[in-house]
């Protein structure tokens, strides 16, 4: 893969063959609007799990990051939709929210209720 920065001083790379942007997320940065908040990008070595030899962030942390991102940046509403999809596909219980940082717990409960209500409504 051949990569180059999309512009001078960029914190990301772009694959020169496919045009796909590769963005680097740094421990301690804040999701969404980038402004300080109780939820920040963690050190992957401390908050991750290894699956088939690959380090992944654990599910509660992923959901916290997506919620904090969608809550603070109107351009990141897809992150809230991602959480709804995780709730639906993984059949997460409502009390899963108790594992999350208090900053995002209410929003998780709102999204969980929305998924539960949508599943009950006839099409």
Describe this structure in words.
With 123 residues, this protein is of the alpha+beta class. Helices cover 41% and strands 14% of the residues. The chain has helices at residues 44-47, 59-72, 77-90, 102-120, and strands spanning 3-4, 12-15, 21-23, 48-51, 54-57. 18% of the residues are buried. The mean pLDDT is 89.
Secondary structure elements and pairings:
Blueprint: E1 3-4, E2 12-15, E3 21-23, H1 44-47, E4 48-51, E5 54-57, H2 59-72, H3 77-90, H4 102-120
Antiparallel strand pairs: 1-2, 2-3, 4-5
- In the sheet with the most strands, the strands line up as 1-2-3
Count of helical regions: 4
By oligomeric state, this entry counts as: single chain
The number of distinct β-strands equals 5
Strand content: 5-15%
* Biggest β-sheet strands, sense, barrel: 3 strands, antiparallel
Chain-averaged pLDDT: 89
Order of helices and strands: EEEHEEHHH
- Bin the helical content: 40-55%
Question: What form results from the Cα inertia axes?
Answer: globular
Pick out the low-confidence regions: none
**Which structural class fits the helix and strand makeup?**
alpha+beta
Structural features:
single chain; 123 residues; alpha+beta; three-stranded antiparallel β-sheet; two-stranded antiparallel sheet; 4 helices; 5 strands; 41% helix
